[in-house]
Structures are given as C-alpha cells and as structure tokens.
Amino acid sequence: MAMSLASSSHSAAQKKYDVFISFRGEDTRAGFTSHLHAALSRTYLHTYIDYRIEKGDEVWPELEKAIKQSTLFLVVFSENYASSTWCLNELVELMECRNKNEDDNIGVIPVFYHVDPSHVRKQTGSYGSALAKHKQENQDDKMMQNWKNALFQAANLSGFHSSTYRTESNMIEDITRALLGKLNHQYRDELTCNLILDENYWAVRSLIKFDSTTVQIIGLWGMGGTGKTTLAAAMFQRFSFKYEGNCFLERVTEVSKKHGINYTCNKLLSKLLGEDLRIDTPKVIPAMIKRRLRHMKSFIVLDDVHNSELLQDLIGVRGGWLGPGSIVIVTTRDKHVLISGGIDEIYEVKKMNSQNSLQLFSHVKEVYSILSTFILILI
C-alpha cells in the first residue's frame, strides 16, 4: 500500500521566508517588533523584517520579491502605522498576494499593538487622521481606496490584541505558537503528499501511543539507504507540533565525536526549553532543568546513534529526564544499540520495493526542503 501526490507549485516549502513582518519602525522597531523577531529566530523561523529607516523607490522591488517569497504575513498595527504611505503600500501588496493565493493557505495575521481594532477597520482615531492628512497631500483617489480596503480586510481577520495581555512577553509567546502551528500544518500536509506511505510508515505509526502516560522510546534500525531518517522525520513533522518541547537531532554520533557530547546535549536542551543553555557537565544536569523537562511532554528524534551511552547522556536512563507522555524516536544501523539501551519497541525498517524507491527518489529533494525548516542541523 503506497501513496504519492505531487505538491502544489506554490507550496510553503518553496517559499524563501516563513514569516514577513510589516510594522511602523518609529513605533515598535526598538521594542515590541525586535523582541518578536528574536523570539521567532529562536524557533528557527526564517523571517523577513526590514529595519532600514530610510526607504525609497530603489528598495521597493526587493520588498515586493520578499512578499511573494513569504508564507505568512504578520502585520503590527500600531498608533502611527497609517501615517506611513510605505506601510500602507506594503499592506496593499501583501493583502493582494494573500487574496490571489487564498487556496495556498497564505495567511495574514494582524497584531493590534495599543490600537483599537475598530479604528483600523473603520479608519477612525489616529488611522482616520492619518488618511485625512494623506488626502490633503493630494494622494490619488484610487490609492486612497486601496489603502482603506486593505486596512478593512486585514482588520477583519483573526489576530492578536495587546489589550488582552498583561505582558508583551505573553503576547509574543502566543504569536510565536500560532505561527508555528500554521506552518507546521502546511508543511505537514505537504510532507504527507510527497512521502511514500508504505508499510514502514504505518508500522511505526501504530507503535506510537498518544494517550500513554509513560515515556515511549521507539528504535528504528536497518541498513543504510532504507529510509530510517526520512521515516523518523515524517513522524516528527506530522506529530511533534502537539508537544510542548520538540527537537530533531541529525547525525548524533558523528557530531558528538566532532564537537563533544556537551555540545550535543546543550543543543537538545536549548531547543526543548527554548533557551540558550550552556551546561558544562551534561551527565549532571541541574535539578531545576530536570524538573522543567519532567513537567512537559516532548517529541524527540535522535538520528544515527551508534552507541547506547549517548542515549543515556542525552535523555537519561530510559528517558528518565523526560515528562510522562513524551516520545523519543532513535535511528541506528545497529540493532544491539537499541537493545543495550533498554528500548522495548524496536522496528526493523524494510527496504522499499523498486517502484516506491523510484517515487521517493524523485521527491526526496522537496521532502528535505520541507523538513529542513524544523530539523536542527548541529554543525
């Protein structure tokens, strides 16, 4: 049983940027927007954001190109957003892009930063004043109408309101989570369309117990070229978004030999907890870090592990550092690594038949383009 579908020519995987941020520099550049950008960067989202203060006609072609190469658009409506004709033209462009590609799930998410959404929607308050000033400056009637239409459409979309949050950090956390959710959904659907769903996929899928209250460690083994990494990546991409912490580490043994186990362990912990951690002795993880890990569900893939000691160094004995309901998938060429590591669920990845192998080979570049957005490259 197998399935393979061609992906859309406008797929999210083919976009250069995950998120495009439109904002009024003088309002939020040094504060909210910079903090938001930093949060998105920590989650490995490729974000287009233009911090240039001076903008002219020579910059516009670059901006148009960036808009066309973006999957999601985040519009930060602040007090003086509408006073900038640049921001208004930017909004018109991205709304047109969104409307033309509605079937491709290109999304616009408004963020109302210390402004009333009704002021944006109805062009009242500071937005009404700004548009009136533009009118006095003899702006073209057609352009004025385009601005009003774009403001109205964007303000009617579901978004985030700063007035409903006690702190900006909480708001940024929710925005980041929403963006990741939308992108995960798109990439996950594209991956399913490009991956060969053969007996290996369904066999491993059946091993995952989503209602489990224990830590599940699933071992995948087989000779090189059978698709262990691709299979693990498919599981990660399809299900990891449901977990508080998630991390996919490629070539674990190779990288650990090159940089040391401390390096690999810190990468894993930093990704799971969303912080830049520097622990000198990973085998003696601070109690507070362990406590946090045990209070969250995580989805982890450890790819190409050559010895069982690495497993204990990274996740503790039998995943003892992880919270109930967590899932760890380990890939290796050596079955004995899994047995000596105390892994109960072990699956031998079967080599695909020639027809499925040919189909997978024809799609492999696009599949890894999708997966690379979420796989943590260690070197």
UniProtKB/TrEMBL annotation:
It comes from Medicago truncatula. GO terms for molecular function: ADP binding; hydrolase activity. Keywords: Hydrolase, NAD. The keyword Hydrolase applies. It comes from the Eukaryota. Residues 15-183 form the TIR domain. It holds the Pfam family TIR. The lineage of its organism: Eukaryota, Viridiplantae, Streptophyta, Embryophyta, Tracheophyta. InterPro entries: Disease_R_plants, NB-ARC, P-loop_NTPase, TIR_dom, Toll_tir_struct_dom_sf. GO terms for biological process: defense response; signal transduction. This is Disease resistance protein (TIR-NBS-LRR class).
